[in-house]
Specification:
single chain, 315 residues, four-stranded antiparallel sheet
Amino acid sequence: MAYKMYIMNFRTAHFGVGALDSSKMTFAADRLFSALVIEAKKIGIMDDFISLANQDDFVLTDAFPYNFKPFLPKPIGFPKFDQPDLTTDVKEVRRQVKMAKKLQFIPLDKFDDYVNGTLLEDKEYAVTNIVTKTQSYVDIALSQVSPDELTDNYSLYRVSTVRFTDESSLYVIASESEILNELMTSLQYAGIGGKRSTGYGLFDLTIADIPNELKNRLTQSHQGPVMGLTTSLPIEEDLEIAMLRGSYLLSKSSGFAFSTQTKENYRKQDIFKFVSGSTFCETYKGQIVDVRPLNFSHAVLNYAKPLFFNMEAEE
């Protein structure tokens, strides 16, 4: 399958991280996959989409910033600060380490420079705000309401929102297909993330070719240094090598599943995955994990198949 870039120009979104009053700027592939499954069920092509997703060559990445060009996640473990230049002032070394920790994403054309030690300033792609809402989903400022006016029918709650700058959007890379194009086109009107009923998470979609300097370094099979572009989980036979020889952070995937047959929420099985930006000595094969609760009526799928970025620059 050929890869395509799906650029999503959001207005305002809420990508929750466990509470309404907190939100991330981006989201992992499993969140997009779940939204696509729901959309496929509404359209009546869920079996076709699941069959497509289970193909070995189908991949989907996490969402990353796009600002006139694609940005990549910061590679974990780079640059190396374990052997600093002894002629460099200690305060300067600490400043460099702090800059590296603060940085989240790297422009594609600066990636190799960063890996080799060039420090970059962090860029602002979006602004996070706390918005006060009522149960009727009407925005209201706390200063306009006195405590005496609040009733059971007029209670307030706080939502963290992400508003992107005029030039910034998010993109994912995926294996192109007519099914995926149809679902992504439909999803832009349904939205992704939390509080979609208030209009959050809607986006304008652009399906674009991937720049050659990025496309030529995308891989699913490579013997050499790679960086994961998907929050993913290796199959069992690849897990040990990935853990022993990788530099990574883990993300816990949990939550609740709902079934119309039971009309109750059940806690899904927890799994831990390597976040995007984790680096490894070679690629591994991922999986789509069924995390359904015990005795649940149907499968609950968690997407964890990776696409990698070849960290060895072309000569």
